[in-house]
Amino acid sequence: MTNEFEQGGTLSVDERAKDSTVVFGFWMYLMTDLVLFASLFAVFAVLRGPEFGGGSIQDIFSLPYVLLETIALLTSSFTCGLALLSAREGSVRGTILWLSTTLVLGAVFVGMEVSEFSRLIAQGFGPSQNGFLSSYFTLVGTHGTHVAIGLLWMLALIVAIARKGLSRGNMRKLALFSLFWHFLDIVWIFIFTIVYLTGGSL
Amino acid sequence: MKNYFEEIGLWPRSHGIARAYVVGFVLSLLLTFVAYGLVTEDALPQQLLIAAIVAAAALQFVVQVYCFLHLGIDRSSRQRLFVLSFAALIITILVSGSLWIMFNLNGRMMPDTAQQEQYMNDQVGF
Question: In this predicted complex, what is the ipTM?
Fold first, then answer.
């Protein structure tokens, strides 16, 4: 079956070959990042054991709070998709609007996570307390760092689109960013499930 | 740059992309609430509860990969699907191997301290 876009598009053959290679290369990076997260999940699964010494896991987390974080990140993943749809329609304003919404929701997520971390540390559940908390802070903190880097990337992207419009370069950056952002939401599904939801019952 | 995302293989098609985003978002929300509700209502026995929320997570993974990352079985997704499958293989070996080893450590230890001391006495260098 031939792709309807293989002939006669806006890109030349060379441009198309180059940009699809860039997307594929970025995908390879994401998959290695996935392996990084998997190793941190394995560490967490090993260290969460019964030797956890600072009270029960459910005592230190608030599930409704984490649910809010989850909804913020999931909604930001959706609005990121809307930014791409606007870009396809050629609307600079729409793209910037949806990207800004994504930025705000992502910032809400990072802010909630930072305040949860500082609350845990203030209550004496810091990363140096025991193996469970070390692996918890490493896993969730690595994800949070990715999201924070995503926020900076988004900011740069908004500035670039505001200055140069939806050029080929900016469309490419937008495509890569969307992969990164959806990927982070997918990793969060497993953090939400394995760390928080099964936290007290495994 | 009208068909840019399609031309570079990010989107397998033009039609239905908006719908895919909406469907993906709604299904993800639904699965999140179902898993959350099962845990807070505590309606199921523990083993079943764990199985149910892990199944909800796996389902949400598939939904988001298909609806948000637009990875399907079409030609433009094939290369990315191969790399994802390879990553899945590595992850399976890594995670199941780690858990297998770490949760069998007790069984691989010397049965008691007397036997350990005997063993260490027999070995030069201990």
Answer: 0.89
Is the CB of B3 less than 8 angstroms away from the CB of A10?
Answer: yes
B105: closest CA among A51, A46, A194, A200? A46
> Nearest chain B Cα to A5, which residue?
B7
Within 8 A of A45 by CB-CB distance, chain B residues are 95, 98-99
The range of the structural domain enclosing residue A43 comes to: 13-47+63-197
Final residue of a structural domain among B72, B96, B114: B72
Count the domains in chain A: 1
In this structure, the answer to whether residues B56 and B91 fall within a common structural domain is no
Query: Which one of B5, B21, B98 has the shortest CB-CB distance to A82?
Result: B21
Q: Structural domain tally of chain B? A: 2
User: For residues B29 and A74, is the Cβ–Cβ distance under 8 A?
Assistant: yes
pLDDT in single tens digits along all 202 residues of chain A:
345 455 456 788 999 999 999 999 999 999 999 999 999 999 998 887 655 555 556 677 889 999 999 999 999 999 999 999 999 999 999 999 999 999 999 999 999 999 999 999 998 888 888 888 899 999 999 999 999 999 999 999 999 999 999 999 999 999 999 999 999 999 999 999 999 988 654 4
Are A11 and B6 within 8 A, CB to CB? no
- B32 and B44 part of one domain: yes
**Count of positions (residues) in chain B:** 126
Tell me which residue of A23, A62, A120 sits closest to B69, measured CA to CA. A23
> A74, B32: Cβ pair inside 8 Å?
yes
**A–B interface: beta-carbon pairs under 8 A:** 158
This prediction's pTM: 0.89
Domain interval for residue B67: 1-72
Q: Among residues A141, A189, A144, which one has the least CA distance to residue A43?
A: A141
